Amino acid sequence: MTASITDVARAAGVSASTVSRALRGRPGVSEEVRAQITAVAAQLGYTASRSAASLASGRTFTIGVVVPYVGRWFFGTVLDAAEQVFSAAGYDVLLYNLRSPETRKRFFTGLPVRKRVDAVLSLLIPDEEETAALRSLGVPLATTVGGTRPGFTVVGIDDRAGTESAVRHLVNLGHRRIGMISGSSGPLHWTTPIERRQAYLDVLADAGIASDPALEADGDYTVEGGERAMTELLAVSRPPTAVFAQSDEMAMGALRALRRHRLRVPDDVSVVGFDDHELADVVGLTTVAQPVAQQGAEAARLLLRQLEEPDAEPPAEQVQMPIRLVLRETTAPPRPRGPQ
Asked: How many helices and strands, by DSSP H and E, does the chain display?
């Protein structure tokens, strides 16, 4: 016989309503009691009736997640963390991977999520028409990319401040030929490359260093792209003594290119990344650490809070997560070798 919610309540010594709140992640239940109820439910093999809950609440208990690249590290990490939060609260995830312009256009034209989801987590930056389409769904919206957007709860970081700390570190070490590997060919409407490039240029200007377009190369936010971009920078008449890569994956590609050219890091070229990728410590990469997984988890929690507490004060439009510069082995002062 399949266990019922009453069976779980009796075994745990609580009311059926407490069991319901605990298993759905709703407030009003202590963590100790929630853990006890979860253990009892697992022991009895109890599974909440999704159809009954949907009929009672009018919800689908499904969250729509829209991504530009499900296979990229940043998006995959955010998605995994968010899904864990949704799953623990009893929600399923309906994933839409909009990696091509055609797929993206088809999604926003037809809006297949309508009446199928209770909220949407968007990991891409919609334009004005796409934003209006998502808002027409009438469900809570959140994102972890881009700046403040009407109707969205944005969980993110200060890209400019992070970049400034990285480039200023290279300037303070004495570097004057500082290159940048960007992701200008990243996802559509993505503002991150623009923000980080402007911060790079601002730090150079503040230090009295003239910017050189030849010291900028596109790395497509991939390891292969970073390797290709670093190779381009090494081919200029006066190569950089240091490089800021807008992501750790591109920085790792740069390290591979430098090794292939038999250049030592940081003796010949210093490298700074951005993200604190799980492999950054392995390769000793100096980088700007951002809490990628925590951004996904926080965005998920804020969406669930809006669903479970609709009368509560709405969350802030912009939730900024902390960042920090992590110094490792890939940066050092430039070696004296004539004018830089």
From this structure: 12, 12
Q: How far apart are CA 170 and CA 246, in angstroms?
A: 14
31-40 core/surface letters (b: 16 or more CB in 10 A; e: else): eebbebbbeb
Between CA 272 and CA 285 the distance in angstroms is 7
DSSP H or E segment with residue 40: helix 31-44
**Tens of each residue's pLDDT in the chain, 340 residues:** 678 888 889 999 999 888 877 876 666 788 889 889 888 888 888 866 655 555 455 678 999 999 998 888 999 999 999 999 998 888 999 999 998 999 999 999 999 999 999 999 999 988 899 999 999 999 999 999 888 888 899 999 999 999 999 999 999 999 999 999 998 765 566 788 999 999 999 999 999 999 999 999 999 999 999 999 999 999 999 999 999 999 999 999 999 999 999 999 999 999 999 999 999 999 999 999 999 999 999 999 999 999 988 777 877 788 999 999 999 999 999 987 644 4
> Collapsing DSSP states into helix, strand and coil, what is residue 156?
strand
pTM of the model: 0.81
Residues 6+ apart with CB under 8 A from 239: 177, 179, 233, 269
Count the alpha carbons within 13 Å of 321 in the hemisphere toward its beta carbon: 19
Inter-axis angle of helices 31-44 and 16-23, nearest 10: 100
Q: What is the spatial distance between Cα 11 and Cα 100, in angstroms, rounded to a whole number?
A: 52
